[in-house]
TrEMBL record:
Signal peptide interval: 1-21
Boundaries of every Pirin C-terminal domain copy: 279-377
Record keyword Signal present: yes
Domain Pirin N-terminal: 110-156, 179-221
InterPro entries: Pirin, Pirin_C_dom, Pirin_N_dom, RmlC-like_jellyroll, RmlC_Cupin_sf
Regions annotated as coiled coil: none
Pfam families noted in UniProt: Pirin, Pirin_C
Sorted UniProt keywords: Signal
Protein's name in the database: Quercetin 2,3-dioxygenase
SUPFAM superfamilies, A to Z: RmlC-like cupins (SSF51182)
Keyword Signal carried by entry: yes
Family, per entry: Belongs to the pirin family.
UniProt lineage: Eukaryota, Sar, Stramenopiles, Ochrophyta, Pelagophyceae
Length: 401
């Protein structure tokens, strides 16, 4: 018998998707037009300071908000860094194409917290129970702690997707099996929703008898219409295998993507040729430079410290959109403390976008079809997040895809 999704599960999913999932009507985004040539080094086009919502633990999140309200932003950031308690959803605009949504999570889970069991039972479970996606890819970049993943495809990882030689060494392809998969502490999961999948992501850390420290980014990346109905697949890039480049006070970590000169995507997944995702750590006074296509989207989010882009300041916990037209990007840590940024570079997909809730498709008709297919169980049927792995395996045998 199909288990209905309770209201608190819906709240958890909305928390994951933030403002994007809360939008009532479908968002219609026109593809950006190429910019005219500009100076050689990019400047900041605009800054977004995302709202930071209190959750896991909610009490600490509320304390951070109170500190922000009285002008003690540095203290709030330090409290969040140390103990967690907030999530920052960033619903990205048309000038972020092909990127749709970015969320920064920082959470802590204490065994002694008296509010925690009440909050989990009555408000929001500790994670994101089974929910659907179609038409795009999610990239989950863990920093500490991680997630336990189950999906309606049974975590089938034996994809026949052609491999890109640059990332071939990063890919592990065990025999397809229906198992729960955990990842964290620097691992990166690429999930191709494609024609449709349900997945569950619950917070996970190694020792459940001790405090759980969890921090990650989740990014939604659109797919062109020709690939939007690809076969669903997951792949995990393990932290130990991620390529790094170090030098002159800069450490760059490759989180996936292989942006080629023509920027044409030929296949989805971590080797897709139209995006580039990097984590960059900068010592005080250090600078990081990268060539980017003149018409590419280039965004950066400051996790720690404050930096400048082409001389324009980007404070901590801020998302910077850079101007198109220039062929290079230069980021400098002008402060006296280490800084860390997430860099997102991608070629715009010059096609219509219709996004609503957990769907990203190309037309109103496709949106209606996605909802109808989900209702008919064609993406699998949602399961209760509290069932055991054995029960989940049986559920997937009956109702999975």
């Amino acid at each position: 018998m199909e288990r209905p999704i309770p209201r608190r599960v819906v709240l958890a999913i909305l928390c994951a998707a933030g403002a994007h999932a809360l939008s009532a009507p479908a968002q219609r985004v026109a593809a950006p037009t190429p910019a005219t040539p500009a100076p050689a080094t990019r400047r900041v086009a605009r800054l977004d300071k995302p709202i930071r919502l209190p959750v896991w633990p909610v009490v600490n999140g509320l304390a951070c908000i109170a500190l922000d309200l009285v002008g003690l932003g540095d203290a709030a950031a330090a409290l969040e860094e140390r103990f967690g308690g907030r999530v920052a959803p960033m619903s990205l605009g048309p000038d972020a194409n092909p990127f749709v949504l970015l969320v920064h999570h920082r959470h802590g889970f204490d065994c002694w917290d008296p509010v925690r069991p009440v909050f989990e039972k009555l408000i929001v479970p500790e994670g994101f129970p089974a929910h659907p996606h179609r038409g795009f890819e999610t990239v989950t970049m863990t920093l500490r702690g991680g997630l336990a993943h189950r999906d309606s495809a049974g975590v089938k990882r034996g994809s026949t997707r052609e491999r890109n030689s640059q990332l071939q060494r990063l890919r592990s392809r065990p025999v397809s099996t229906r198992v729960k998969e955990t990842y964290g502490d620097g691992d990166v999961q690429w999930l191709t929703a494609g024609k449709g999948i349900l997945h569950e992501e619950m917070w996970h850390w190694a020792d459940k008898s001790r405090r759980g420290e969890c921090e990650l980014y989740q990014l939604w990346v659109n797919l062109p219409a020709a690939l939007s109905m690809s076969k669903p697949a997951t792949e995990v890039l393990r932290a130990a295998d991620l390529a790094t480049v170090a030098g002159d006070g800069v450490l760059e970590t490759d989180l996936g993507g292989a942006l080629t000169p023509d920027g044409a995507i030929r296949a989805p997944g971590a080797a897709r040729e139209d995006v580039l995702l990097r984590k960059v750590e900068l010592a005080p006074g250090a600078s990081y430079a990268r060539d980017v296509p003149a018409d590419a989207t280039a965004l950066l989010y400051t996790r720690r410290g404050a930096v400048s882009v082409g001389g324009d300041a980007v404070p901590r916990h801020t998302l910077a959109y850079t101007e198109r037209g220039a062929g290079s990007l230069r980021v400098t840590n002008d402060g006296d403390a280490p800084a860390e940024i997430l860099l997102l570079v991608g070629m715009p997909i010059r096609e219509p976008v219709v996004s609503s809730g957990t769907w990203v498709v190309s037309s109103e008709a496709e949106l209606a079809r996605a909802n109808a297919d989900y209702g008919a169980g064609l993406l699998g049927r949602p399961w209760d997040h509290t069932i055991s792995d054995g029960e989940w395996e049986e559920w997937n045998r009956k109702y999975g895809i």
